[in-house]
Design a protein that fits this description.
This protein is α/β, with parallel strands linked by helices. It has four domains: 10-133, no CATH class; 174-474, Thiamin diphosphate (ThDP)-binding fold, Pyr/PP domains (Rossmann fold, 3-Layer(aba) Sandwich); 532-701 and 712-776, Rossmann fold; 783-946, Rossmann fold, CATH 3.40.50. The strands form five sheets. Strands 3-9-10-8-7-4-6-5 form an eight-stranded mixed beta sheet. The protein has a seven-stranded mixed beta sheet with strand order 14-11-15-16-18-17-22, with helices on both faces. The longest helix is centred in the N-terminal third of the chain and has 24 residues, at 174-197. It is globular and about 110 Å long.
């Protein structure tokens, strides 16, 4: 068989080879038709039918035809290398790949008549010189497309059919050209007005890339004509104020108030700087279509918004039934340095090709200022273009010179048409410059003196395009001056208004899907119990094996145990509790989405939410089956990344408060890789932007002797981020508590992010089980009092703890027969249950010893957050004692033996089986709670906190 790729047409393959190759292939075909690919066989069969050879006779493919084909293909592939893309003039005029001699041609051939039919520009015959002129106009002008590396021939062919017949240029009417000029004047004069009135205020202007506004307008207007009813934007600082005012139509008055530094929203939070804020607007296009536009708020971490916008888009598509993904379109605007340099961009691009994260294609706009802060491109990337990374997803790249408004507008139209046709990403590389420094207080000439000098001497795009239209008779100087004067008056009037009046919130801080979800008051509880009859029915439904499905024996046994534990009201474990929680929510019509690495099975083999036929591997998901007709359930094993995945899920949860969106870390420690999402979105978006969210993070946590990176979900970091009731941090200790916690998240009339320290060893701990009655109980308990020792008058010591260590304390207390030490479980750490603690403390004897016990080091875990609170709110406390590991730079020991000894020492001290003093000890008795500690090991410490 021939090695010619099946995806390439014979003609394309010919252009990649030579005449000798064609001859060899034809000879092989004549000897054995099956020796060549089917496409080649069909190609040669056409010549057989005509009774001629492709190598001879009137219809033959001659040497000149192959040379021309090679020439045309070369311009399609390499024409962008000599295109006029840089407004500052640093363009290459020639390239060796496009020299005539590369194709066996010479200057004398330029006047020869040639067959140009392969080039889709019209007539079949022209001179070679004319053909090259057309190729240069199409592929080497101010708009050049890089697309020949795309493997899909339909994509390549469609682009050729759009570009080549019109020589890659649109003919705009005089009215359309004047509108383009108006947009350029708006963009430039808005920036110069702000610079004149507020010379020391940062605004990160887009001067030099002013035609971005034209680009976005064309994407929006043609998109609306192609069926788009909503467009979601994400971008960093550069040009943001311009996009807000001229694309999102944010009133000049509101913008001026923000530039003046005034708080312009009624939202009670702290707010944010003007170039981080978002906005939304219903825009009516020139054709009369209405399209909803929204720009997502964005923190300083430049590309962090990318997966967030994608997640918002995915949720909106799902809610409106836009499963063809043609009505809701994401547009991401990047800086050149950030696109090439920040890993979250690559992660988001990668995810776009996966079914669980697909949004039907994103319009990416790279604003190439040719400098990143003060870093030259040669120091910031090794590739020719910042867009080169996008080649991994086979996206076409539209390189366009920002000094040509018509080329920019055409690029925008072609991009949205491609996206709607193929539901695939497309990249617009807007090559421009930065007229001022990184911000308006920077002097660019200090670090880029040559470029700064070139820019200072370079006319603005407004000047260039106005003169071009005046020279063409499209507009007059008087018309330009009149429009400019009108615009300046609008800006002046808006500034005067903003000095004395505060614009109203429009849109309001909370609207759309969130408008009926009020902020929480003092009561964070909810009625979440489910009847035992319903729970039994759910268990039987969700554990039933469909007919003809060969369930794996291990899974079959697990499901049988789940059914029996519920129907017989015996000990219900963690996996069963989660199944019942999700099943009951789905049964009530709630959409559920759970993503993370290995979530289908569960990292610790505790979930098995998806079964795989033991014979053929066919998947079956009982929760998804049950959801049919009443809700949706999606569970997805994610790619091996946390950063962009969590950003995507955060975006989904921000757009749809009526869906339970959960992300589970493979190990809780892996949440480290998502820290910017936690800091700049999850914990602070409500305060900064008035944006609510109900995302649930499931973070396996607990010291099992698995080392520093498999023990600790950095509980203390979340608690450091807690303030103003911004989120919940929970460490449930029973399956029923976990059940009520998940249901509570959706049953309250508000949403807050929920951080859950989920178990590892507790998943199979015989003590960590619940009864069916506990699932039918009213709801989640924030602080669980002692449950076994009923005579509190005999209590001399109270241990307060969270999570897994409770069961170790309980087991040793039972073993030792201790009756005077009570154990309390703090299940919800934040918001801290003050009233519950005060009430429970009043039931214990005055002066009882109170200890906070944890397995994490003292500088980690709950203690740094909770110590003072326990001390303050426990009625009559004189001294609070900390028992746990000493402060440590590492979260846990890497030695399992040391871990066991440390844990035993903590349990012994807490229960009074070892000395409670401030000195470290190593004399733990082997016969009671564990092996003695080596003499050089410091296991734990006791820290009293006194009033």
């Amino acid at each position: 068989m021939s090695s010619t790729p099946v995806s390439m047409s014979p003609l394309e393959a010919v252009t990649a080879g030579n005449y000798g190759y064609l001859e060899q292939l034809y000879n092989n075909y004549r000897a054995d038709r099956d020796s060549v690919d089917a496409q080649w066989a069909a190609f040669f069969a056409g010549f057989d039918l005509a009774g001629v050879s492709p190598l001879e006779g009137p219809g033959k493919i001659g040497k000149m035809d192959l040379q021309l084909n090679d020439l045309i293909q070369a311009y399609r592939e390499y024409g962008h290398l000599i295109a006029h893309l840089d407004p500052l003039g640093h363009n290459v005029q020639r390239h060796k790949f496009l020299e005539l001699k590369e194709f066996g041609l010479e200057e004398a051939d330029l006047n020869r008549m040639v067959n140009a039919s392969i080039f889709r520009s019209g007539g079949d015959r022209c001179t070679l010189r004319e053909l090259i002129t057309m190729l240069r106009q199409t592929y080497c002008g101010t708009f050049a497309v890089e697309y020949m590396e795309i493997r899909d021939p339909e994509h390549r062919q469609w682009l050729q059919e759009q570009m080549e017949p019109r020589l890659n240029k649109l003919d705009f009417s005089p009215e359309q050209r004047f509108e383009l000029l108006k947009r350029v004047i708006q963009a430039e004069d808005f920036e110069t007005f702000l610079h004149k009135r507020f010379p020391t205020v940062k605004r990160f202007s887009n001067e030099g890339g002013d035609t971005l506004i034209n680009l976005l307008d064309e994407v929006i207007h043609l998109g609306a004509d192609l069926g788009v009813d909503e467009m979601l934007f994400g971008m960093a600082h550069r040009g943001r104020l311009n996009v807000l005012t001229h694309t999102l139509r944010k009133p000049y008055e509101k913008m001026m108030s923000e530039v003046l530094g005034r708080k312009t929203t009624t939202h009670p939070g702290d707010g944010d700087v003007k170039y981080h804020l978002g906005y939304a607007y219903d825009h009516r296009t020139p054709s009369g279509k209405v399209i909803h536009l929204s720009l997502a708020a964005n923190p300083s971490h430049l590309e962090l918004v990318n997966p967030v916008v994608e997640g918002i888009c995915r949720a909106k598509q799902a809610r409106k039934g836009d499963f063809e993904r043609l009505r809701t379109v994401p547009v991401l605007i990047h800086g050149d340095a950030a696109f090439a340099g920040q890993g979250i961009v690559a992660e988001t691009l990668h995810m776009s090709e996966l079914d669980a994260y697909a949004t039907g294609g994103t319009i990416h706009v790279i604003i190439n200022n040719q400098v990143g802060f003060t870093t030259n491109p040669s120091d910031g990337r090794f590739t020719r273009y910042p867009s080169d990374m996008a080649k991994s997803i086979q996206a076409p790249v539209f390189h366009v010179n920002a000094d040509d408004p018509e080329a920019v507008a055409y690029a925008g139209r072609l991009a949205i048409a491609f996206r709607q046709r193929f539901k695939a990403d497309v990249i617009i590389h807007l090559v421009c410059y930065r007229r001022r420094g990184h911000n308006e207080l920077d002097d660019a000439s200090v670090t880029q003196p040559v470029m700064a000098r070139e820019i200072a001497n370079h006319p603005t795009v407004r000047q260039i395009y106005a003169q071009r239209l005046i020279a063409a008779g499209v507009v007059t100087q008087a018309q330009v001056d009149e429009y400019t004067a009108t615009l300046h008056k609008q800006l002046e009037d808006a500034l005067e208004y903003a000095k004395n009046f505060k614009p109203s919130d429009n849109p309001p801080p909370v609207y759309g899907a969130w408008k009926d979800l009020a902020s929480p008051g003092k009561d964070w509880h909810a009625q979440t119990g489910v009847s035992k009859e319903k729970l039994r029915a759910l268990a039987e439904t969700l554990c039933r094996v469909p007919e003809g499905f060969n369930v794996h024996p291990t899974v079959a046994k697990m499901m049988q145990q789940r059914v029996e534990s519920v129907t017989q009201e015996s000990e219900i474990n963690w996996g069963t509790g989660e199944m019942l929680a999700l099943g009951s929510l789905i049964d009530e019509g709630t959409w559920v989405r759970l993503t993370g690495q290995d979530v289908c099975r569960g990292t610790f083999s505790h979930r098995n939410a998806v079964w795989f036929d033991h014979q053929n591997g066919r998947p079956y998901c009982p929760l998804a089956k049950m959801a049919e007709g009443r809700a949706r359930f999606m569970i997805v094993n994610t790619p091996l990344t946390e950063f962009a995945v969590l950003g995507f899920e955060y975006g989904m949860a921000s757009a749809d408060p009526h869906a339970l969106i959960m992300w589970e870390a493979q190990f809780g420690d892996f949440v480290n890789m998502t820290q910017p999402i936690l800091d700049q979105y999850l914990s602070s978006a409500e305060s900064k932007w008035g944006k609510y969210n109900g995302l649930v993070l499931l973070l396996p946590h607990g010291y099992e002797g698995q080392g520093p990176e498999h023990s600790h979900a950095r509980l203390e970091r979340f608690l450091q981020l807690c303030a103003e009731d911004n989120m919940q941090v929970v460490y449930p200790s029973t399956p029923a508590q976990y059940f009520h916690m998940l249901r509570r998240q959706m049953k309250r009339a508000y949403r807050r992010p929920l951080i859950v320290m989920t178990p590892k060893s507790m998943l199979r701990n015989k003590l960590a089980v619940s009864t069916l009655d506990e699932f039918a109980a009213p709801g989640f308990i924030d602080l669980i009092d002692e449950v076994e020792l009923t005579d509190k008058s005999q209590i001399k010591r109270v241990l307060v703890c969270s999570g897994k260590i409770y069961y170790e304390l309980l087991a040793e207390r039972t073993k030792q027969g201790i009756k005077d030490v009570a154990i309390l479980r703090l299940e919800q750490i934040y918001p801290f249950p003050i009233e519950d603690l005060q009430r429970i403390s009043q039931t214990y004897p005055k002066g009882v010893e109170v200890l906070w016990v944890q397995e994490e080091p003292r500088n980690n875990g709950v203690y740094p957050f909770i110590g003072a609170k326990l001390h303050y709110y426990w009625e009559g406390m004189q001294k609070l004692v900390y028992v746990g590991r000493k402060p440590s730079a590492s979260p846990a020991s890497g030695s399992h033996e040391r871990h066991v000894a440390e844990q035993a020492d903590i349990i012994a001290r807490a229960l009074g089986l070892a000395s409670l003093n401030t000195q470290n000890t190593s004399n733990v008795t082997s016969g009671t709670v564990g092996k003695p500690l080596p003499s050089n090991v410091s296991s734990s410490e006791i820290v009293p906190l006194t009033k």
